[in-house]
Design brief:
single chain; 7-stranded antiparallel β-sheet; 3 helices
Length: 137
């Protein structure tokens, strides 16, 4: 809804008719996995040795359930095309939600694929993104 989602500082609902589901919010707030530890499997020592130091988070691949609300298929296509050309085509974008007002996610666009068909007022999509550095929010 209006004021719930901001992409590059712009209200995504009023500009593109775009919103995200509660499952997408859950995916965003999930903590990232850590990078793999450095491992040594020398034939001179039994087993494996791990170099344990400060754990650092790895990039995150996120799948966000999104929707575009439009009055007809032409308006939906126009909104989707505008969203792609003004935001996703650049590759990197910021995303902010009303649920986490103090957090701005810096994301890389991967793809936007159809999830369900347009039903005359709403089209659900899957938005695949990468968060390159989960500590930079």
């Amino acid at each position: 809804m209006k004021g719930d989602l901001f992409i590059n500082g712009v209200d995504a609902y009023t500009t593109y008719g775009l919103g995200i589901s509660e499952a997408a919010i859950s995916a965003l707030i999930c903590p990232p996995a850590n990078k793999e530890l450095i491992r040594n499997e020398s034939r001179l020592t039994p087993g494996a040795q791990y170099i344990v130091g400060a754990q650092v988070p790895d990039e995150r691949q996120l799948t966000l359930e999104a929707y575009i609300k439009a009055d007809n298929i032409t308006a939906m296509y126009t909104a989707l095309n505008t969203l792609y050309n003004s935001v996703f085509k650049a590759g990197l974008f910021t995303l902010k939600t009303s649920d986490l007002p103090d957090v701005t996610f810096k994301l890389k666009y991967n793809n936007f694929r159809q999830f369900t068909e347009f039903n005359g007022r709403l089209a659900n999509f899957i938005l695949n993104v990468t968060e390159p550095d989960p500590t930079d929010r």
